[in-house]
Automatic annotation (TrEMBL):
This is GNAT family N-acetyltransferase. It comes from Neolewinella litorea. The keyword Transferase applies. GO terms for molecular function: acyltransferase activity, transferring groups other than amino-acyl groups. Keywords: Acyltransferase, Transferase. PROSITE patterns: GNAT. It holds the Pfam family Acetyltransf_7. The lineage of its organism: Bacteria, Pseudomonadati, Bacteroidota, Saprospiria, Saprospirales.
Length: 160
């Protein structure tokens, strides 16, 4: 059974493993990708701030996915960023991605954001379908200052 819960300090190694596993699958490693972000070692602390949340998705207790949101760095405070949302390959296609995304959208709206922004790569085609189905539209350039120069696809969703 799929279950979503906020991460705890004990989840930090699991979160880092899932992010690095999925990013390696898509050859997204090194500078310019989220698998290289300093916050990856302590995601609990990074997302234990106002206007942010991060979740662990489990299937019968087994960790299978992660995702969250936080203010978009370099923006005006009305835009949040969907961050590090990844599912392990064997768990895809069962609704977990939708579950994670819907929780992040609910939380971001409750926190008062007007828009949610995300960066991804063109190779993550299943994720692109999920984003489109949930109202994200393409942008021709990145927003903010994420440090993810390896990303080549930029999307946004307005709440209002």
């Amino acid at each position: 059974m799929l279950r979503l819960s906020p991460i705890t300090p004990a989840d930090n190694p699991t979160v880092a493993r899932i992010v690095r596993t999925v990013m390696a699958e898509f050859n997204c490693v090194g500078e310019g990708f989220s698998s290289n972000d300093p916050e990856l070692e302590d995601m609990y602390s990074a997302y234990s701030v106002p206007g942010a949340a991060y979740y662990l998705l489990t299937d019968d207790g087994r960790p299978i996915g992660v995702g969250g949101y936080a203010p978009l760095a370099g923006a005006d405070g009305t835009i949040c960023e969907l961050r590090k949302m990844y599912l392990l390959p064997e768990s895809r296609g069962r609704g977990g991605g939708r579950m994670l995304l819907e929780e992040c959208l609910r939380g971001a709206q409750a926190d008062g954001y007007a828009q949610m922004y995300l960066e991804t790569v063109r190779g993550m085609t299943a994720a692109a379908v999920l984003y489109a189905r949930n109202g994200f539209t393409p942008l021709d350039r990145p927003l903010g200052n994420t440090g993810h120069s390896g990303c080549d696809r930029f999307l946004i969703k307005s709440f209002r």
